[in-house]
Amino acid sequence: MLDLSLAFDLLVAALVGLAVGVQREWTGHTDGPDGRFAGARTFALLGIIGGFAGWLVRLGYPALATVIAAGGVLMPIVAYWATMRRPGTTTDGTTEVVAVLVVALGLTAGLGVRTPAAAVGVITVVLLAEKTRLQQALQRVDAAEMRAALLFAVLALVVLPVLPDTGYGPYEAFRPRQLWMVVLIFSALNFAGYITRRLIGETRGLAVTGLIGGFVSSTAVTLNFSRRSREEPALALPLALGVVAACTVLIPRLLVVTTMLRPPLALALLPVLSPVFLAGLLLIGFVLWRERDTRPAGTPATEPHAEPHAAPHLATPTASDPRPANGLGHNPLGLTSSLQMAVAFQLVLFALAWIQQNAGASGLIASATVLGLTDMDALTLSMTRYAASPNAVPMAAVAVGVGVLSNTALKCGLVLAIGEARYRRHAAGGLAMLAVGSAAGLALGWPR
After folding, report:
1. Do 439 and 404 form a contact (C-beta atoms < 8 A)?
2. Residues 24 and 128 sit within 8 Å (Cβ to Cβ)
3. Average pLDDT over residues 288-304
4. To the nearest whole number, what is the mean pLDDT of the chain?
5. Which one in 1, 132, 241, 444 has a CA-CA gap of 20 to 30 Å to 358?
6. Which residues lie across from 405 on neighbouring strands?
7. 157 DSSP assignment
8. What is the pLDDT of residues 192-231, one digit of tens each?
9. pLDDT digits 0-9 by tens, 23-53
10. How far is residue 134's CA from residue 128's CA, in Å, rounded to a whole number?
């Protein structure tokens, strides 16, 4: 009787090889003076060889399977050796390496593990097809970015696994592994913001600059843009829009952190934070729609970095400026700020553990109000710990919502105290709308 499971295993093995072979043949790697040994048919057959080897392992013939798989692997090795002996051949072993991988993927499929084999096969074809774009992307990576990526790999793959996951200190609130996860999460967010700024650039408008800056610190964006409004009153509306964008992007940032650390809390935060996020999106969309025709055709958009009085973090680097020419700084990971965040998080954990033991829910809301004025990230992270018990999740969500409202009030105070008159009207009005959305979210999410 036909074994349909085996038939599907061998089919996946053959298709993986065929897909790789078609890509190699389509891009011309089988022709010309540098032509390699295998095309679509050969790769499909290599996949089938691996598939049968995996099937023989399942039947209890590992020795025979080893001989068959070794033959499939040996063929591209010999072909590479023969190809490199030809005069004038360019050194390139991609096709041969992929042929060995196809045998391995066919073996994996033959063992019955079809989905991973198919997934890796698709990824392999994409990597082969996107060779030019990958090379172009690597040419744009500078030394600071490469060091940051390698450092992050060490922090995540070497340091994190060796840290203990048990509690120490008062109330057992000090957990080294969880604290290091905080460092990794915010380093990753900083790096993502850095790369985004590299791709988009800081010259595409103050709204985009504020939006990206909000991934790092919406309060810092508000402070810098408020100062700049006094030096460049003509940019009042774009600067105000940048502040609203920075405050709006704070919401998905908080949801990303809570989803990674405490998914139930992220779910409870949706009704609390959705109104303020929607208010920000609607306000940004309305202003962009209203101002779509205000700039004459052919007039260049405002270049934030080209202004003579640009805020420090937006200014164009000079010969005496130690920053790179891209103006994004030497530290893509923002490791120092991430470590500072972890220290603040730990201090807040000790304080919240004491509040939980002695003050109850009222003390929690009071502390969220105060902490939200200065550090929404530390508040959010501490609430992920507080929400370890399902019964504590609703109050933790409310505390985050209270912190957002408190933080919005602080930014409004900065705008009114520092900003230029026209900028104050626009920015304070936008922040007031966000505050209304925040209050509506608290009304929806308050435990009853």
Report:
1. no
2. yes
3. 51
4. 76
5. 444
6. none
7. I
8. 656 655 665 443 445 666 666 666 667 767 877 787 788 7
9. 888 876 666 565 566 778 888 999 999 999 9
10. 10
Locate the domains of the chain by residue range.
Answer: 4-138, 143-445
Is residue 174 classed as helix, strand or coil in its secondary structure? Answer: strand
Using the structure block, give the residue that is written with the tokens 């105070």.
413
Q: Let me know: does 12 contact 50? Beta carbons within 8 Å.
A: no
- Indicate left, alpha or beta for 128 from its phi (over 0: left) and psi (-120 to 50: alpha): alpha
CA atoms within 13 A on the CB side of 65: 20
User: What is the three-class DSSP state of 28?
Assistant: coil
Neighbour-count burial of 298, counting CB atoms closer than 10 A to its CB (0-12 exposed, 13-18 middle, 19+ buried): exposed
| DSSP of 263-313 | HHHHHHHHHHHHHHHHHHHHHHHHHHHHTTTSSPTTPPPP-GGGSTT--TT
Residues composing the chain:
448
Given a contact cutoff of 8 angstroms between Cβ atoms, the answer to whether 333 and 191 are in contact is yes
Amino acid identity of residue 317, one-letter, is: P
The answer on pLDDT for 315 being more than 50 is no
β partners of residue 174: 168
Number of C-beta neighbours around residue 63 at 10 A:
9
Please name every residue paired with 168 in a beta bridge, in sequence order, or none if there are none: 174
Which of 68, 74, 75, 71 has the alpha carbon at shortest distance from 52?
A: 68
Q: Closest by alpha carbon to 243, among 441, 28, 434, 444?
A: 434
The pair of three-digit structure tokens given for residue 213, joined into one six-digit string: 């800056």
pLDDT, tens digit (0-9, with 9 covering 90-100), for 320-376:
334 343 434 456 666 776 676 667 666 766 765 665 556 555 567 777 777 777 668
What are 393's two structure tokens? 């999740």
Structure token pair of residue 309: 């009085």
328 vs 422 pLDDT, higher one: 422
Taking each helix axis from N to C end, the angle separating 131-139 and 114-129, rounded to the nearest 10 degrees, works out to 70
Which CA distances in Å does 302 have to 203, 206, 210, 222, 224?
7, 8, 14, 19, 17
**Pairwise CA distance, residues 207 & 195, whole Å:** 17
Entry pTM: 0.49
Backbone φ and ψ of 43, nearest 5°: -65, -40
DSSP of 394-431: HHHHHHHHHHHHHHHHHHHHHHHHHS-HHHHHHHHHHH
